[in-house]
Design goal:
Largest sheet: none
Number of strands: 0
Distance between the termini: 21 Å
Strand content: under 5%
Number of helices: 4
Number of domains: 1
Structural class: mainly alpha
Shape: elongated
Length: 132
């Protein structure tokens, strides 16, 4: 391996660490946004009565992940836990949507579900240690 390859690999590693550090800085905003999302989506629809415990658990888990990311930002575990929490939240939203949504409100639930998928996929892409 010559020096150009070593420099390129070190730049890739530095950029991956910078992306992770940026995610650590963004965690308080993510927690606040997850709490705010509950108040935005809370209405009289039947399936939204399950949003309160789901969003509470999501905010609590994100807070724990944020603390772990701040303490051990070079480790893998907090980032993996964050991804699993987001994926489990999306799957639980899908189950609630499937079981409890009346047919006339299904479009609202599907659009809300898609809105939650997009930031999770974006996070998983940013969290990867691969180069762009």
């Amino acid at each position: 391996m010559d020096s150009d390859d070593k420099n390129r690999l070190s730049v890739i590693a530095d950029l991956a660490n910078a992306r992770r550090r940026a995610l650590v800085i963004m965690m308080p905003f993510i927690v606040i946004a997850s709490v705010f999302a509950y108040y935005v989506t809370d209405d009289s629809l039947v399936y939204h009565m399950y949003n309160a415990p789901l969003h509470f658990l999501l905010s609590f888990a994100y807070s724990i992940c944020g603390i772990l990311m701040y303490i051990k930002w070079r480790g893998e575990v907090p980032y993996i836990i964050f991804a699993y929490v987001a994926i489990l939240f999306i799957l639980s939203k899908l189950v609630i949507l499937t079981l409890y949504t009346p047919p006339q409100y299904l479009a609202y639930g599907v659009s809300e579900f898609i809105i939650w998928i997009y930031p999770t996929v974006t996070y998983l892409q940013l969290n990867s240690l691969h180069s762009f």
